[in-house]
Amino acid sequence: xxxxxxxxxxxxxxxxxxxxxxxxxxxxxxxxxxxxxxxxxxxxxxxxxxxxxxxxxxxxxxxxxxxxxxxxxxxxxxxxxxxxxxxxxxxxxxxxxxxxxxxxxxxxxxxxxxxxxxxxxxxxxxxxxxxxxxxxxxxxxxxxxxxxxxxxxxxxxxxxxxxxxxxxxxxxxxxxxxxxxxxxxxxxxxxxxxxxxxxxxxxxxxxxxxxxxxxxxxxxxxxxxxxxxxxxxxxxxxxxxxxxxxxxxxxxxxxxxxxxxxxxxxxxxxxxxxxxxxxxxxxxxxxxxxxxxxxxxxxx
Amino acid sequence: xxxxxxxxxxxxxxxxxxxxxxxxxxxxxxxxxxxxxxxxxxxxxxxxxxxxxxxxxxxxxxxxxxxxxxxxxxxxxxxxxxxxxxxxxxxxxxxxxxxxxxxxxxxxxxxxxxxxxxxxxxxxxxxxxxxxxxxxxxxxxxxxxxxxxxxxxxxxxxxxxxxxxxxxxxxxxxxxxxxxxxxxxxxxxxxxxxxxxxxxxxxxxxxxxxxxxxxxxxxxxxxxxxxxxxxxxxxxxxxxxxxxxxxxxxxxxxxxxxxxxxxxxxxxxxxxxxxxxxxxxxxxxxxxxxxxxxxxxxxxxxxxxxxxxxxxxxxxxxxxxxxxxxxxxxxxxxxxxxxxxxxxxxxxxxxxxxxxxxxxxxxxxxxxxxxxxxxxxxxxxxxxxxxxxxxxxxxxxxxxxxxxxxxx
Amino acid sequence: xxxxxxxxxxxxxxxxxxxxxxxxxxxxxxxxxxxxxxxxxxxxxxxxxxxxxxxxxxxxxxxxxxxxxxxxxxxxxxxxxxxxxxxxxxxxxxxxxxxxxxxxxxxxxxxxxxxxxxxxxxxxxxxxxxxxxxxxxxxxxxxxxxxxxxxxxxxxxxxxxxxxxxxxxxxxxxxxxxxxxxxxxxxxxxxxxxxxxxxxxxxxxxxxxxxxxxxxxxxxxxxxxxxxxxxxxxxxxxxxxxxxxxxxxxxxxxxxxxxxxxxxxxxxxxxxx
Lengths: 300, 408, 273
Ligand SMILES: Nc1ncnc2c1ncn2[C@@H]1O[C@H](COP(=O)(O)OP(=O)(O)O)[C@@H](O)[C@H]1O
Ligand SMILES: [Mg+2]
Fold this sequence. Notes:
The complex is a heterotrimer of chains A (300), B (408) and C (273).
Chain A: H1 2-32, H2 39-59, H3 64-91, H4 100-120, E1 126-127, H5 147-169, H6 171-181, H7 183-188, H8 193-219, E2 221-222, H9 226-241, H10 246-267, H11 272-286
Antiparallel strand pairs in A: 1-2
Helix pairs in contact in A: 1-5, 1-8, 1-9, 1-10, 2-3, 2-4, 2-8, 2-9, 3-8, 5-6, 5-8, 6-8, 9-10, 9-11, 10-11
Chain B: H1 2-24, E1 25-28, E2 33-36, H2 39-70, H3 81-87, H4 89-109, H5 112-137, H6 146-163, H7 167-189, H8 194-214, H9 216-219, H10 240-266, H11 269-279, H12 281-286, H13 291-317, H14 327-340, H15 345-361, H16 363-366, H17 369-383, H18 399-407
Antiparallel strand pairs in B: 1-2
Helix pairs in contact in B: 1-2, 4-10, 5-10, 5-13, 5-14, 5-15, 6-7, 6-8, 6-13, 7-13, 11-13, 14-15, 14-17
Chain C: H1 2-7, E1 16-25, E2 28-38, E3 43-47, H2 54-61, E4 69-74, E5 82-83, H3 89-95, E6 97-99, H4 112-119, H5 128-133, H6 136-156, H7 171-183, E7 189-193, H8 201-218, E8 221-225, H9 229-235, E9 238-243, E10 246-251, H10 253-258, H11 260-268
Parallel strand pairs in C: 3-8, 3-9, 6-7, 7-8
Antiparallel strand pairs in C: 1-2, 1-4, 4-5, 9-10
Helix pairs in contact in C: 4-6, 4-7, 6-7
Bound molecules: adenosine-5'-diphosphate and magnesium ion.
């Protein structure tokens, strides 16, 4: 039973991280039907910036919580800037191109960013400082769920609630929903579609960076390649939940995270990624619209 | 002009900001030291300033071109380089003869190292030609192409180490295994939309590697399989040098074979269906083309070549392990296809040679190769989606001529 | 609605027989119990305001969508009658019904000739092996494909541009190319979705003649969606009218012109007729 709880907690943590990244995929896909392949790289860059900032701050004598807040803040700002620039350079010129073109461009960007970080920093793993403090009240159940885990789950939950509020109640949220429904119509009624798309990338990148900081601090090390696998998994989660569907992305991420944790714990951890992909393949074959997505017929 | 410079300055400033933490600061979290590399900012500033000017200029030209295309005055005025090369025997013949001579004497005049690299490049030519069918002709974006390459390589490796199969038996078997895997994996996923297909195939690529890594009994796991024999010649003893030269010629034949077959298919009922599928799936099916079958054949056909290339790869290296079959290899082959021009055979050959040989000979460049490939994919999609050498469409002669033509 | 059954011809003299076809998209009933027949040698028009469900009706008949309800029966001149609901569209085409699209769907980066040659796909058999070996049968089929395609291009007046990319053709020519491509599949029934859309009056006139010629010399029946009332009234033998997914009238051009329901539907909708 305890083992089960441990696995559940680890699955929940994974799921929360996947959810943070998956939201970026799902929002972008919902609006421009593009798999933003480079999204995982934004997450990786977020983690790197946080690592660099916290390293510098540590050396200059800052301490504990102030490092965490500053590092996360700067990481988020940078991720947003990267996301914005990425869209402008690699996707905007391809708005009307055949479907595969932006996808190939996205793959190119993903390779580019990975290798950019590799060359500018290092191919090796870097130790990531444990930024998240230990809470005393978590002591009794620390073997099942420690403070970092709690912080990850809570932060993710708060971010998602924030996103939901943003989309439901703000002006930009409404514009986003309108653009998702029908881009041409939205443009006609005066929505600045280009800005909405930029904003979508920015929001997605912010969430991914939050995920990056949390993961770095939780796992304790990062390298230039962490975005790739995380990106694919998060995309899987988004598809699982129904791509374009925001609650779906969260649900899909949790299901995927738990599946992976149980499979790794009870079956074999070597094949962990195989399970994730297996889930993806099965869902695409049997229910391509995902758990919460509606099946749409393509108009002819 | 002034405006142009002002904007480029702003762009440069933006990129200085963007790259600052990653390019300038390098922290060592173990020793707690920071290295500040300020000089990098200068390079970023100058680089992005220049690139931004070039970018804007290229964008303007691109817009001009698409405006022209809208008014119906397409390139047709001036046939492209590829078209001229194919159509004008005056250019075409001498080029071909010189090329054939160079190809023939190449391994005789260079050392074994060079010949070996050339074999590798030719392996990638075959991979490129294979993926070119799947992605370039049929429009199925396969990001796990390396899986079939691995299937071929391990078919030979396993058959040899367990049953002592030789190269020449394993070669066709490797190709067939590739195609078989293509069919088995392709069957459930080919009705997926293009971008989903890309992700699922990416998954297959990763799964293949994980399975190879973890299935010790058959694939010997991460240690890999060693002592794979080079291609044999009726049991004759060969020095490494001769064997490499021999492999080189086998590869040349294989490339010619691949060109021949792909060319025949391109201008056939099957090839046309592949292209139509790429252009418009719905219309294609509405015109009576069986989508599942057509896609599956394109997918399996591409996989077949990867399987063949895999066998040769194993015999060239005499050693294989899972690390030769990562997403990077898939990405590499994909950039070959993208750069060469989707569907264009000459383009793919040139791109494969350039992309494989350049990093080998320009060592300084090799560090940057994946970076460049990434950039190339993005830039090609934006500025030259048809590739360096656009696919030339065959003209079919009219009724009167065609009778003689077909019998010739 | 009642008239349908009265005027219904004998089954052995019908090519396409659609009974009570219904198509739902989620909550939206795009086609609501529509019945329609096409007999050999007929030109039948399907008209109605935008959004009436005409294209959806085509999509159901040609296998793009699986209808929610109802039956689509075909009675090919040769071959057996069958119910084709839920058949994939390539099967429907192979049976002998070919279509064009309202928003043109050509293979843009293939030549005009190749576009038509694709239409021959389902009437030829060359496999991968066959294409590689290029035996005599393959060559014969290839030759026939080219010949037939050239013939068709001649019929629609596009021989001169056979080697152009389809995307470089002017709009009207693209519409005619779609017709040629559909004809290449050897259909007994051609379904044309707004073939005159975007054409100028001269082009429409030529199209008018082309459609009649296809019926008369190629012996292909035609089911046609069209907004150009002049064209419809000129060439149709019978007309069906749809509004909001429902069939509101059917009959000869004369009947339709004077039908108050039709007039109301069109005037009320601020028609584009
Ligand atoms: N794939 C689809 N999904 C949802 N609604 C659709 C789809 N195709 C058509 N519709 C809806 O069905 C109705 C009929 O459309 P359509 O058949 O295109 O009309 P028409 O061709 O008569 O102009 C419209 O309201 C349209 O929005
Ligand atoms: Mg319509």
